Amino acid sequence: MYLVEGAPGTGKTTLALQFLLKGLHEGQTGLYITLAETRAELLAIGASHGWDLSRFTILEQLPEEGLEPQYEQTVLHPAEVELGESVRNVIEHVDELKPARVVLDSLSELRLLAENPLRYRRQILALKHHFSTRECTVLLLDDTSASTSGIQLHSIVHGVISLDNIAHDYGGNRRRLRVAKMRGIKFREGYHDFTLNTGGLRVYPRLVAAEHHSEFGTSPMSTGTPGLDALLGGGLVPGTNSLIIGPSGVGKTTTVVSCLLAALERGERCAYYVFDETLSTLVTRCATLGMDLAPHVDSGLLTLRQINAAEISPGELSSDVRNAVEAEHVRYVAVDSLNAYLQAMPGERYLLLHMRELLGYLNQQGVVTMLVLGQHGIIGEVQTEVDVSYLSDAVVLFRYFEHHGEVLTAITAVKSRANHHERTIRQFRLGTEGVEVGEALRDFAMPGMNGIGVIAAARKLRADLPVVLATGYADVDIADLAVKHCTILRKPFQLDELARTIRIGLVA
Q: Which domains does the chain have, with CATH numbers?
């Protein structure tokens, strides 16, 4: 005997109908005993899901004559007459039909008839004793919206399943269930997301990364861009996740698509979960950069998923990713972006916990994972909405910088657990052929913002001004500066050497 409890609208009746239909599929007879809903209402519920409920027995315990005034009981207590009759009818039909699966909907009606916790508990115990001798599995449905007395039954039944329906300020409701008790069976504790759509309940068990592991190679896979491969120490390593971080418009999404295209050209299956933009916009924008995704989508190698952060639950997303990896054999997974994924979560701490399990699972499966995280701000100080860098095996940082009146982009590999990566800063460009990563920005200086520019400005004011120039440039010559009193101090140098040179210049 098992108890399914929850407020109205959480899916108790739908779950019970699925329970009986599954029994019919396995050759078991079923009996649905309803104390609140009519047979017509149950048939309508089944029709809305496309189910034929005529194959099992539906017993109404609320006959029409019981609603007439002349049949109302006024002499004896309802618990002495109506409750006993209801329980007797249930037992008689179970003995007559001998069903393998029974649903009793709902206990709240029996509780009202009993009007006494002790009498109510004794009746449930009597039903349990009777069912235990009839070799049938019983599902009891209970409404918890107006009372907490269902807790009285937890010690009686073999298992308890609690259904919740959580309403947020915006977006769809979040439905979740929890197995509170299950005698003699090891079960997955905690809350599990589920959806209630046409076709019934679909449960997404909470993902535990430690339960999943597979063997895979760890040779780096090329990103398709030589400069990016050099930054990462050879490419992306299977079983690792990379965080692509930077401000808006810097090229994070394009870089991810470029890496996916390289994998697709090798014949590897990829899944791209897009939160921030529509799929049509993504495909069109990539095509203008010479990265055509349409042929790979048509071939089935690339799966594009448009995710609505206001509607999807974290468990549903994790289940979708797991299905892509195990059923579709996807080897590359990209999530764009974590900022939108955060909005699908009730709080940051839950995001980090879910991300940890999801990334751990993908790593255990040897999947290459790429995560996009946007930063606030364009030039100067930028801020990150949530810090997940410690969960990432590699971090690729994009940033803007100004040069010659232009806003340019730089890229660097901040972190890589799997490879010895470069620590240089390279220029990043988006061309007609996609992503371009240039050489390292060494000896890079802003015109007019270095020592030579300052000397040129000072020379216009006073040609005989004594100057000490400390520089790391090897090609700087005194003759080119056209300054009468100038001393060049080459880097590296000691602090006392700099002080001594300045004193000589001041004396001059």
A: 2-206 (3.40.50.300), 226-440 (3.40.50.300), 451-507 (no CATH)
